[in-house]
Amino acid sequence: FLMLSGLHESVLRFVSRHRRQNFQRVPILARFSLSERLIMLASLILAMLFLSPPGGSNGIFTPFGVSAQNMSTQSKRKKLSLHNANHESSIRNIVQASFKNDAISPLKPGNHTSNVAIIVSSSRYWFNYRHVTNALSIYQLLKRGGITDDKIILMLADDIPCNMRNPFRGKIFPRGAYGGFGEDLMEGVNIDYSGTDVTVDAFLRVLLGRHLDGEGGDSLGSHRRTLPKTDENTNVLVYLTGHGGDNFFKFQDGEELTSQDIASAFSQMHELKLYKELLFISDTCQAFTMADEIDVPNVFSVGSSLKGQNSYASHTDNEVGQSVIDRYSKVIKDFVDDAVTVTSRGNVHANKYGVGTIDNATITVMERLNLFDALVRIPTTHGDLGPNSKVGHTDMLCSRRMNQVPLAAFFAAPQAERERQVRQLDGVVTASLWMHDSPLIPPNDSIETKPSFYNQQCISDTESVLPQLNASSDETHHQRKSTGLFPLDLKFVAGLAGFIFCASSLSRMF
């Protein structure tokens, strides 16, 4: 206020001197014409906008000399901010309370020895972009929990990342593209089934560990790979996203998986002792009806909507041109990310082991967040799931209630497996080499994370199809990166003029 008062006084003195009038003897209202008053008002507004805190939301422009620095500061502040401000109170009441009361916490890790997961996005066509994002959001949470690719089956029915209408080839953004620099869910992704291989038959064969002649195998790169051998000590996660209805789930608009099919598969898995506990999540319209026929023990079922209800998209990104994620899957991802931010007291850094690898901060949150809160309570409270949409859930035939089971029981590898991974990542594994094996190199900040083979192939295809477009985009990006702002930015010119005017007034005052 004092600064602006001084600016106002200096402007009055400057204009009075310019008109050759005595400043002290002229009444205030009679000193200036209407045009002069408007000029003074405009100069004060420009000064207020210019003098806003660096990097703040009220600033009108960024000087060339500090453009990169301010952009870096804004990026850091953005990483520390929450995706949903309403999450903070819930995190402090639910998650942080568990940090203080580990001794009396009802959450028990269980005694399972391994985890496997099957993630399915069954929709085709570009306008179903959000279903791929849903699946990849769950996939990346599993990877951060230490579950490796050999224990995850990822089925994507359409090649959305490399779709010709995707302006950012080979990338999928859950929150927004931000000019291509948003969070990319395709980093480090291994897709096991894609295109026409994603069928009801393939899904059921993966669940039951059965495959046709010439197919199967549990090693990465196998044609139509199956899960590693499971037993009564394995926790299984099954996640479905796409289009559905009352007691059915569509596969590529050509066939349907029914609730009877799911119930039959789970029943066979129980008889064959292929799981210890099973978590079944369905994110589709009338999702919870897919669990209607399940009658075997230790199966936790969750649906993003009840019978007669829809599952809604979250938001549209203008750069992508599509809805980028569904509301239910978004709130799960956002809440876990926000919990990591809050519980680490804002001291959030990139995963030390790289993208798509085990993340201790995420695991710590998963160990203290129970299934009911993460998958039912938080989406219902903070998810804004849509008109009359509610999350369905049941743990009726389970030996434990959902509020007694940590999220880590299905989204994180067991303790022994995590310790093995950390030992490998923290140092070179000394072992005799066999054939074409190579030693595991520890991560280094100076080593740039390479894109997955899938991304490389998509980028290669893009360059061969649209070489001129890529060259133009690279040139434009280089120009923006080197100059920061455009040289003839009108806001910059107007702000600079206002600042010079106010600075010259101050100089006359002093």
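^ that was protein a. below is b, sequence first then the tokens
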Amino acid sequence: MSFIKCSSTLEGHLDRVWHVAWEPNHGKYFTSSSADRTIRLWKFDPNSNSCNPICVLQDAHNRTVRSTAWAPGSLKMASASFDGTVCVWTRDETSDSLEVVATIEGHENEVKSVSWNCSGNLLATCGRDKTVWLSPKDILIDLL
């Protein structure tokens, strides 16, 4: 059996890290989400085989950020939080920053996961309230 050796350890979160998600369009950005209520954007440098922190997103959620997902073919990312909200973010290619463009509310409590469809125009969320939501296509299309 083969073993894979860890090439680097990324630090910075102050509590449990729950999830990581690669941005599918370029393969060099990814997010990590944490119980410290933050999302960190990282950039992979293939030349040095290392990752560098780009920014810390800390004002959108007031409880654990459980998961993130990037929309295929766009600069959009969604985050699911135990505060019962989902935020949709857009990445500015010039500054590499992320900005909230929409907040989806309505789950009764913790949102556990978020996922885009393969076209990047539908967003599914699931929560502790035992529901799965598909966000309205007409709202998301305006954002994309």
